[in-house]
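User: Thanks for the earlier help. One more: U-box domain-containing protein. Can you show the sequence and predicted structure together?

Assistant: Of course, both are below.
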Amino acid sequence: MIIVIIELSPRMRFNPFRANVNNLFDVFEAAKNDARVSRTPFISHYNNLNSAQAQMELLAARMSRFLVLEMLLENHFHIANRRAPFAESISRADFHFGGFQSPIPRPSSRPHVQESTDPLAHIPKPNATLSDKAKKVAAELDDKLPQECCDPISMEPLADPIEINKRVYNRETVSRLIKDGKFEDPFNRAKVDPSTAKPAHYMLDAIIAHSDVLAHKEPIMLRNHKSTDVHPLKDLIEQWGQLLRAEIPAP
């Protein structure tokens, strides 16, 4: 058996809550391509569990998103370059991010969990007009959309954002991080009461405002939220300040 660790590049979108083992070949190929382009070793292989564990601890400390694949192969030269045999060789797959770990199942084995009560039911969804506009702007910005405007687990654009413990995630992510009645913060491993969560619709406004910043226009939010201590918005506002202070290139 070999252990393959795939570090996901900062902008790679990967939703561990919807993925299955059959999707992982595409992730592996994308990571290989990212490694060639950036000359960064995103993929590592191990026959020794202790060496693999050391790499996992290093990536977790760096708050990198990564996959750990246990593959029924003698060495990495036997890794298949086709989807079906690649998936068949995987005996176990897990997604990791900080203190969070989630198994990646086979297509037919992901259980459907029916919650008796929704711990996030008290949080309203954003209105459709705001949601649709933010979604459109995010699609238009594409790679220019800041990471601060994305879910830190999946790197998908924020669409139904919820603030908890001074971080912002999509609703689906928050619900999946709740275990035994507590939200388990992947950044600092704190266990937080889900009742403290609240809507973060301001991040949809931030997505829309970012296009104005790129046009060198100061958004109203820059002044209204300047003292925020919520990490994605605080970091984004600092980024906006740098962009607005930068010289406008000559036409």
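User: Great, one quick takeaway?

Assistant: DSSP finds eight helices and eleven strands in the chain.
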